[in-house]
Amino acid sequence: MKNKPSCHTFCDYLATESGLLKISANDEAITAIAFVEQQDEPYGSTPLLQQAKQQLTDYFEQKRKTFDLPLAPAGTEFQRNVWRELRAIPYGVTCSYADIAKRLNNPNAVRAVGSANGKNPISIIVPCHRVIGTNGTLTGYAGGLQRKAFLLLLENPLFSAREPK
């Protein structure tokens, strides 16, 4: 994952079964993917954005389990390390914030991992939806818990999690 700013930014949109995705990129990499309610700015697609749309379409059609796109999420070194660990979570598998903290050799950083997870700018490709509570409950997701549950069930139809109280 790169963390280099670009002077050009572009965005495009993809309608999915779970909602509208806004995909943003600079000249070299995807910088953000987020669920939005409506198109909030004009789009200007590029070959990279078209590639991202196709890979995401394949994911939602269950034809793709991994992504092959250059990424450049803006964040601190710690956040980027967390996001790198999120990308290592296999398709259809979940883990907890504590699991990620342990992988970072910092088991006391559970809250910091949760914060970094919540600030992940590249939904789905950096699969923050695969992180659930240690007790098996669905935890926060910027796209909403319904979308998180949808994505987890898309990847693993046998997935079950308790709703938070």
In words, what does this structure look like?
The chain has 165 residues and is α+β, with helices and mostly antiparallel strands. It has two domains: 10-61, no CATH class; 77-155, Arc Repressor Mutant, subunit A (Orthogonal Bundle), CATH 1.10.10.10. It is 32% helix and 13% strand. It has five helices and three strands. The chain has a three-stranded antiparallel beta sheet, covered by helices on one side. The longest helix has 14 residues, at 47-60. It starts with 9 loop residues before the first strand and ends in a 10-residue tail after the last helix.
Task: Quickly describe the structure.
This protein has 165 residues and is an alpha+beta fold. The chain contains 5 helices and 3 strands.
Give the amount of beta strand, in percent: 5-15%
Largest sheet: number of strands, sense, barrel closure: 3 strands, antiparallel
**CATH architecture term of the largest domain:** Orthogonal Bundle
Q: Span from first to last CA?
A: 36 Å
Number of helices: 5
The CATH topology of the largest domain: Arc Repressor Mutant, subunit A
Number of strands: 3
Supply the helix-strand structural class: alpha+beta
Q: Order of strands across the biggest sheet?
A: 1-2-3
CATH superfamily of the largest domain: Winged helix-like DNA-binding domain superfamily/Winged helix DNA-binding domain
Low-confidence stretches: 2-6
Mean pLDDT: 91
User: What letter string, H or E per element, gives the SSE order?
Assistant: EEEHHHHH
